[in-house]
């Protein structure tokens, strides 16, 4: 039997040296070694196939100087360790040697049958096709198009993405309750949303930016370029857009500083209003000296000249004047002339006056003037002057002697 085996081997070796191809069960081998099944079809119970060496892990681990592409079948992993050239031998099966270690010819563990461990980086080229994990109407997809990389999660009731550490959780979701939210939970002490460069942070609704946070800390509502720490643009003229729901015009008055706006709309503090006071200059007399009145000049009525000091900003001056006078003589010409009392401010006649006609010697006349005049800041002189405006027979330049019966002259302004 041994002689026969050797003869066959010599025949095969000689044949291979001549033709460099060996065929078993075929007279026309198509490769270096071409083995055809003895019974390629039919119901024969004879065994066709190739039996490669069957060894345990320890034997494979002990081999040295193993040529690349050597094939074995590991029939046991009860011996040896998963180290060195046997680092990948973790189950029975076919293995081949790649020059460094034994590699599983057909891995028995797959994503669909069991868990596994990656020993290094793995790349999947999708050629633009998405990868989807589907369970009924729920889908998780990975998008890798030519210009877009994305991740999607959808479900019939809710789609969510959850990020978790050992103690903190961040969940972003959209559900059928018309809610789209981002919530943090656990022992987290702060949720930060922002940028790591100089780009602004914006919030928008209905496709339009409504709130902007610049890299300098300025916040804009209704504007994308706020110039102050907080700038509101209501979009409506003469409306600030700021409302205090629980602080209205009916709220009790408290202490503090009053607020206002400047020409640019900046909120500024303004002086608190002080209680209103009245500053008054007045003359009230029944013993003023007599004075002469003619048609040529306006004579100052005795006691009416007053100095008024107006504070910065100017004031509205309330003026009230009453005069009772007795005519003591009968000027030449014996006419019944007309006499006028007129208000003067800083020596300039105003448009406030009263005019009466004399009715004879020892007759009495009364004059009354009331007005409001705005005066600028500074010192001012106010007085009331009389003049004959129509002689009516009285000689021009002739004096009428007037004796004041009563003089009341008040000038007041509010502080």
In a nutshell, what does this entry contain?
This protein is mainly beta and 415 residues long. Helix content is 6%, strand content 43%.
Overall mean pLDDT stands at: 86
Category by helix and strand content:
mainly beta
Q: Strand content of the residues, in percent?
A: 35-45%
| Biggest beta sheet summary | 5 strands, antiparallel
The CATH topology of the domain at 278-414:
Jelly Rolls
CATH superfamily of the domain at 278-414: icosahedral virus
Name of the level-1 CATH class of the domain at 278-414: Mainly Beta
Radius of gyration: 58 Å
- Any low-confidence stretches, pLDDT <50, length ≥5? none
Number of helices: 2
Instruction: Spell the H/E element sequence.
Output: HEEEHEEEEEEEEEEEEEEEEEEEEEEEEE
Termini separation: 138 Å
Backbone shape: rod-shaped
Helix content: under 10%
In CATH, the architecture of the domain at 278-414 is: Sandwich
Q: Could you tell me the number of beta strands?
A: 28
3D architecture notes:
The structure is a single chain. This protein has 415 residues and is mainly beta. It contains 2 helices and 28 strands. The chain has helices at 2-19, 57-62; strands spanning 22-24, 33-35, 54-56, 71-76, 93-97, 102-104, 131-135, 138-144, 149-154, 158-164, 168-175, 180-186, 201-205, 208-213, 219-221, 230-232, 258-261, 267-270, 278-285, 291-293, 299-300, 306-310, 315-327, 338-345, 348-357, 364-375, 378-390, 400-414. Strands 19, 20, 23, 26 and 28 form a 5-stranded antiparallel beta sheet that branches. A hairpin with a 4-residue loop joins strand 8 (138-144) and strand 9. The chain starts with a helix and ends with a strand. The mean pLDDT is 86.
